[in-house]
Amino acid sequence: MYFRALNNKISELKGVGPSVEASYKDSQIETWGDLLQLSPRDFEDRSRIINLNEVSVDGEESTHINTIVEVVSHTYFGGFSAKGRTLKIVVHDVTCNKNLSLLCFGRNFLAKTLKVKNLYYLYGTATRHHGEYQSSQFEMSHIESVDSPLPFPYGQYLPIYPLRGSLSQRIIRRDIKSILSTSPHFDEELPSYIRDELSLLNTDDAIRNYHNPSSREMWELSRKTLAITELFYMQIIARKNMFIGTKSESKTKSVCSNIENRFIASLPFSLTGDQMKVLKEIRESLDSNHIMNRMLQGDVGSGKTLIAWITALHVIDKGYQVVFMAPTELLATQHAQNAQTLLGPLGIKAELLTGSISQKNRRPILEDIKNGNCNIIIGTHAVFSQDVEFKSLKYVIIDEQHRFGVAQREALLAKGEDPDILMMSATPIPRSLALTVFGDLNISTIREKPNNRKDIISYLVSERSRERMYRSIAVEFERGHQAYFVYPRIDDSGASELRDVTNMFEMLKREYPGVPSALLHSKIPDDDKLDILKRFRNKELMYLVSTSVVEVGLDVPDATCMIIEHADIFGLSALHQLRGRVGRSDLQSYCFFVYGDNISDIAKERLKALKETNDGFILSEKDLSLRGPGDINGTRQSGFLKLHFSSFINDTDYILIARKYCDKILSSDPKLQMGENRMIQKVIKEANPFPDVD
Ligand code: ADP
Ligand code: MG
């Protein structure tokens, strides 16, 4: 059994009730195999003695200690009555001959359990004030003598897991322990010669030590083993087709169908060189006899959506259905309107399907989808709810792929017979990573902007230059151009979000009297939102004051000003996406990044990078380097590139090692049929770590 393939449900564990199960589910843990892939966020080092000698001198900072103490005395301090007093236990650290005072705030009962002259293991934190060592956070566990066997969890290098809902360290440790103890032996995943050459552990030892290491070194070795294994499979899976040869693809010259040509000819502009290039790549993959799993990446406004429509026509022309999935109702609606305007005249029937469509209106749409009257279905994840039946789904386009979870995608894929997939993303993977992981073959990239575009001019605006900014925006209004004022979502309660946007809205009304505007934020009902956007597009409204709901996909050509307040709070890619809402026509556009006085250095770097370039690809590299090793989550992108044991930022060495073995194996045995390579094939079949990439 491969550990990843342990499909037992979490609820089969003893002691796991519905609430713990739900909390696991929120952390995307549904099976035993999922839980074994949960990585610790930190450690408690109880594996070695850390005694009072290591406590910093009269510092504010507390130091972790893990040592053996003997209780010396019980005294009390503070308070006027017996009840109000606080217990202070003086203990003697036998490993360094120093005394430590345990301040038992609210824990006077410890006087009964921690007995004078007894020995204890102590784990906690300590500080030193005026020469006295003190601790108010400690756990003690009685031992008979200094050489007694250590009670759990002493003597361990103890993982601390990320928590959610009703999960606790105790629960997670208990559950992992019980999975490991019921599973006899996990199958090996790396060919033995790789393991030997790199001095790695075997898979079984690695996964056990990952959760239950005896020392830091042991944990690191098991992490290294699992990380290299994971990266090795990621590359084998992503690259194996490259080595099998380009089969029939190059011979079957794939051509634009008549309907595609008619559509392209009807456009008021010509396609850019990059658009033609990716169009050809996608068409060829669609026509090949391999299932397509392709990423189309390109900056906001580079014309990806248009490519999606053209390639959809390619598939529709052969008599199949296409799904176009957008992350929000707002975007789905906008896309559906566009599709109807653009594709309707060619006799293509496009339908919008979202969760908010009434049952009555939904029925005929479902009927159309089922009997094939409808060629392209545009919607949110509602396109794959239970009641939707397709006649012949062959192609799925996913807009802003990083916003969807794997589970949602899988549910959709189950609806078609192995549909081809195109994922579109405006947040490119840095090229170095993209190439290492995917190879060139599965990524199509648009770098070139439509030629009529002018680069957006960006300004960094401090409070002092705010007035000047307002004046220059007034000039844009006079020219009939429009603006977005964006506020960050400051917290989840919604309260301060509303207050800020609302204040801003009132303030701007005074600044621009008579200029029609509207507020847009997550608390506004969807219907009203759509109406506001429609009026904005028609130029009945000149500016929107909004939270970051405008981030994705909105396309309003006459909007030339983007003002982002508190720009220092946003991440680099979010800022770049927001900026991409303007500069969508031949008009000169402007982006104002407004920042406060206490802006951090790193936020300043981000804004500077944005001022310097409009190129999302350069920015993605910059983002990676600015984020640094601290932000692992940011690069463990959800779903598509989900790494459990490794990280793109910290593990470039491992990536290269894995890549070396991967290429060596694939170039001599592309079908993985020889000797030990067969085990690789078996792992992919039975426990594929990256079903998305395959
Ligand atoms: P993306 O999806 O990459 O953000 P879109 O496909 O929505 O970009 O394109 C943005 C805008 O640019 C749309 O209004 C689209 O019609 C227009 N557009 C697309 N391709 C071109 C082109 N080659 N020349 C001029 N305008 C284009
Ligand atoms: Mg788009």
Describe the protein in words:
- By secondary structure, this protein is an alpha/beta fold.
- Among the domains are: 48-155, OB fold (Dihydrolipoamide Acetyltransferase, E2P) (Beta Barrel), CATH 2.40.50.140; 258-288 and 302-425, Rossmann fold, CATH 3.40.50.300; 457-613, P-loop containing nucleotide triphosphate hydrolases (Rossmann fold, 3-Layer(aba) Sandwich), CATH 3.40.50.300.
- Helix content is 38%, strand content 18%.
- The strands form four sheets. A seven-stranded parallel beta sheet has the order 10-11-9-12-13-8-14, sandwiched between helices. Strands 15-20-19-16-18-17 form a six-stranded parallel beta sheet, sandwiched between helices. A five-stranded mixed barrel has the order 2-3-4-6-5.
- A hairpin with a 4-residue loop joins strand 3 and strand 4 (98-104).
- Mean pLDDT is 85; it is low at 245-251 and 628-640.
- The structure holds adenosine-5'-diphosphate (ADP) and magnesium ion.
- Adenosine-5'-diphosphate is lined by residues 269, 271-272, 275, 298, 300-306, 450, 452, 555, 584.
